[in-house]
Design a protein that fits this description.
69 residues; alpha+beta; 5-stranded antiparallel β-sheet
């Protein structure tokens, strides 16, 4: 999945696949997580958030199943 670099102290890049509603987040420490069943609006919210880390913690983590790649 292609990821878009973001400005964040915690997140390096994020990508989204519309067909599968999969959000992929690459952290600055090199770890990559895929979150399943994430609506496009959540991805857009993440990409537009002033604080990507705060948005991820408040709206994605704990709400959608994930796997660490």
């Amino acid at each position: 999945m292609e990821r878009t670099p973001v400005t964040s102290t915690n997140i390096r890049a994020a990508g989204y696949e519309t067909d599968s509603q999969t959000l992929e987040v690459e952290f600055n420490n090199g770890s990559v997580y895929q979150y399943a069943g994430v609506p496009l609006s959540e991805y857009e919210g993440l990409m537009n958030a002033d604080s990507k880390g705060k948005f991820l913690n408040a709206n994605i983590k704990g709400r959608y199943p994930y796997v660490k790649l």
